Each structure stands twice: as structure tokens, then as C-alpha cells.
Amino acid sequence: KGCVFPGCDMPGLWTEKHHIQPWEDGGPSNYANGCLLCRRHHTLIHHSDWEIRPAPDGHPEIIPPATHDPHRKPLRNTLNHQPQFSWPQPA
Q1: Which H or E element spans position 52?
Q2: DSSP notation for 16-35
């Protein structure tokens, strides 16, 4: 529905698609490996020590750099939620 970065309220129509596991590193182009990020947060993920990963429930988690949080506690955006699809996701 929008940018998955914690606290960002950018709507989905103004976001960019992001491969969680990079496509050039063999990451698949599917919903399980994708999320939406606004331009600002997409650039931050690609050009800083912030990371993104899928949580066990499939929702993306943002991992701050140790300079921001020494424990690197995963964060989620509670404003925008990734849509759930009824078809099976690849393993």
C-alpha cells in the first residue's frame, strides 16, 4: 500500500519496486522478494548501511545500522501494510 520504511506514509502510487534480495545477485522477481519504497528510502537502502529483509511472516523488516541502533532491532512500518495475496507463494 506504500513505502515499507518505518514511519513513512508515502502512498504506493509514489513508490518504487525494490528487490529485497538483489536481482543481480539472483534474487527472484516475485512478490515474496519485493516491497515498495519511496525514492528517498530506496536510495537510503541502496547507498547506506540500512538493510531490508523479509520477516518470518513475509513482511519486510528494516534493519538500522549499528550507528543508529547498536542492537540493530528490526523495524516495521505500521502505517502502510504489504498486501496479502491468496495464491501460494514460492518456497
Answers
A1: strand 51-54
A2: EEEESS-GGGT---SGGGEE
Measured between its terminal Cα atoms, the distance across the chain in Å is 24
Give CA separation, 58 vs 15, 26, 34, 52, 81, in Å: 19, 19, 10, 12, 11
Residues 3/77, Cβ–Cβ less than 8 Å: yes
- Report the predicted TM-score, pTM, of the whole model to 2 decimal places: 0.81
pLDDT per residue as tens digits for the range 23-51:
888 888 888 889 999 999 999 999 999 99
Classify the C-alpha dihedral 43-2-86-56 as positive or negative: positive
